[in-house]
Amino acid sequence: EAGVAQSPRYKIIEKRQSVAFWCNPISGHATLYWYQQILGQGPKLLIQFQNNGVVDDSQLPKDRFSAERLKGVDSTLKIQPAKLEDSAVYLCASSSNNEQFFGPGTRLTVL
Amino acid sequence: AQSVTQLGSHVSVSEGALVLLRCNYSSSVPPYLFWYVQYPNQGLQLLLKYTSAATLVKGINGFEAEFKKSETSFHLTKPSAHMSDAAEYFCAVSGGSNYKLTFGKGTLLTVNP
């Protein structure tokens, strides 16, 4: 069974630029999550989808972050414009029942 | 509301020694509890989980954890550390219908030869 796929693995941008990350969850998993993991901290949930609907986006900075899952499968997370404090690893996860499976993450560096 | 506290951001043990990583949780509903391991430049891998069945949970790679409701703890142990256990370990709690995970800050385990 293929795992959660994410791309790109690494991204370096200048502040005020925009960036997008892509996630392909495990086949058949209805629930998809995006987490932000800042260096030295645990992952923090940004947004949770159930199929193509948003379940929880209470910690998503909506002035600059957006996410979509139009067909209930793949998802994209966008940051526009990026700030220095957005430097982090962005993890995507999908779940079956009560277990979440994580992708390898995208490491974003904002200069 | 839920939260996790991991005591000790860095734990160092000798190869063959006991590994003990501490986790205390807070949850307003009966919790599900998880331990994840993260190797450098990789995502999180599930070690074990507690979902209200047996309080002593066995996971992969020889790890186990015991759920103690009276102490609100879910400490992770392994009898004998191996060099390959060196990684960062995260304790997480979820509760409620959306299974939202709240993570601790992590404990970096170093294994010395």
Describe this structure in words.
The complex is a heterodimer of chains A (111) and B (113). Chain A is mainly beta and 111 residues long. Chain A contains no helices and eleven strands. In chain A, a hairpin with a 2-residue loop joins strand 5 and strand 6. Chain A is globular. Chain B contains no helices and eleven strands. The chains are: A mainly beta (111), B mainly beta (113). The interface between A and B is medium-sized, with 25 and 24 residues.
Largest interface: A-B, 25 and 24 residues
Classify the secondary structure makeup of chain B into a structural class.
mainly beta
Arithmetic mean pLDDT of chain A: 94
Residue-averaged pLDDT of chain B: 92
Give the fraction of residues assigned to helices of chain B: under 10%
Short key terms for the protein model shown above:
heterodimer; A: 111 residues; mainly beta; 52% strand; globular; B: 113 residues; 0% helix
What's a quick, concise take on this entry?
The complex is a heterodimer of chains A (111) and B (113). With 111 residues, chain A is mainly beta. Chain A is built from no helices and 11 strands.
Layout of strands and helices, then pairs:
The complex is a heterodimer of chains A (111) and B (113).
Chain A: E1 5-7, E2 10-13, E3 19-24, E4 31-37, E5 44-50, E6 53-56, E7 65-68, E8 75-79, E9 88-96, E10 99-102, E11 106-110
Parallel strand pairs in A: 2-11
Antiparallel strand pairs in A: 1-3, 3-8, 4-5, 4-9, 5-6, 7-8, 9-10, 9-11
Chain B: E1 2-7, E2 10-14, E3 19-27, E4 32-38, E5 44-50, E6 56-58, E7 64-68, E8 73-78, E9 87-94, E10 101-103, E11 107-112
Parallel strand pairs in B: 2-11
Antiparallel strand pairs in B: 1-3, 3-8, 4-5, 4-9, 6-7, 7-8, 9-10, 9-11
